[in-house]
Amino acid sequence: MKFEFDNNFIKRFWDKIDVRENDICWNWKLSKNAGGYGRVRYKNSMTVSNRIAYAIMYGDIPEGLCVLHKCDNPACCNPKHLFVGTQKENVLDMERKGRSNHPRGSDLNSSILTENDVLKIRDLYSKGEFTHLEIAKTFNVSDSTVHNIVTGKTWNHIGGKRTYVGKGGKKTRGNAKLNTSNVKEIKKMLKDKRLKNEEIGRLFNVSHRTISSIRSGHTWSDVKHDK
Hints:
Structural class: alpha+beta
Number of helices: 9
């Protein structure tokens, strides 16, 4: 993962850490998740303090890798105590150290999102107004991450509206304002180049983004309009 820090962010970050001698733990002083990792807001999403400390000192974290502790102290942000490894190595490391309570969600060392973020993502998508990619950009994650969240492939230990795949591969869309009949009418109207997305949206009490998403095929692609 690529990080970009300005001097103000870096100063505020280190102010939240008990910086001491080089060889002992530098503990995070503010809020922590259930696993004991410091919580930091970076670009509108929550991450853990040891990842930020590693990135400030050593640079970007390779995609898919976790930041692990030599000291076995989740609150520690001393760069000398940090190293990168795979999620498998992270789990094996916890097993060896007797911390194998199998954390989930934001308790994972590698997690960027919180439970509240996931609920917001599912709620946004269920409204049918935003695509996976638009939501992904907002939360600084990949579109595949959003897809897995809204379908329940990941974060399935918490609730929220999901897009389930039912019989015949048809999707249900939570509390979406539109139904199949509405969408067929919209797709008919989209054939008339004189009508704008905003005008069609007002007729069906949805946003122009919803109409644009239908027009581009990002949503309701399985519904065909009647000829």
